[in-house]
Structure formats: structure tokens, C-alpha cells
Amino acid sequence: MSAPDPELKKELDATLQTRRELGPEYENELLDSFLEKVEQRLDNVVDKRVRRQLAEQQMVAARGGSVRPQPAPHTDADGLGARLGLAVASLVLAIPLTAIAVANAGLTGLVTCWAGIVAVNGFQASRSWFSRSGPDHDRR
Question: Which H helix or E strand runs over 8?
Fold first, then answer.
């Protein structure tokens, strides 16, 4: 996992400050704008990785080596990385979601917001647990 992006943190802080100044009537637009910036950041990271892999393959080919297709990285949807990623993402998003929920609905909003966060993480954890406990699960 890479280090937190300081630019993205600044954007989140600015979004939250703007929301405080403008009020709840603009929060949908502010969240859309922030999430678009997060998506752009992710796209940039993926593009950078793809370009690096292509450059490595071109170097191997230029040196006369055979370019074998690289096996896809192991992407177990229920792997530790996916579970950890979901947990971290839900905690990061919990900050603005909690602020929005409390500002609009008080204690009821807070409880509802966190019930949703716990439910999503609980569902993912139960999926992972049940998929590992089946008879076909191969122990590594």
C-alpha cells in the first residue's frame, strides 16, 4: 500500500471546509467533485503501472529476449489486500460521511451511517470467511 497522497488530503480538507462554509445544500456537488479527483488519482496510478510494464516488455524485446505475457497478478477478491483495502477505504470515507450524517440527522444519522459501515465490512468479512471454510479451499 502506498503512502497517503498529501495532495488528496489537502483536497479533502478543502472540500470539508467548503462544505462548512456553503452549508449542506452543496454537499452532493462537493462530494462528487472530491470523488472525481480520487478517481483521477487512481486512473493516474493505474496508467503509470501499465506504461511501466509496457516499457519493461519493450526493453526485453529490444534486447532480443522473448516477450512472454506476464501472468496476471493474483487478484483474489477475498484476499487480505481486498479486505484491508475495503476496511481502510470505509474508515477514510467514514469521516466525511459521519460529518454529513450528524449535520443532517443528528444522532440518528450517526447511528445509521456507522451501521451501514459496519454492515458493509461485516458482509465482506463473512464472505471471506465462508469462502475459505468450504471444502474446495486450498490451504496455502
Answer: helix 6-22
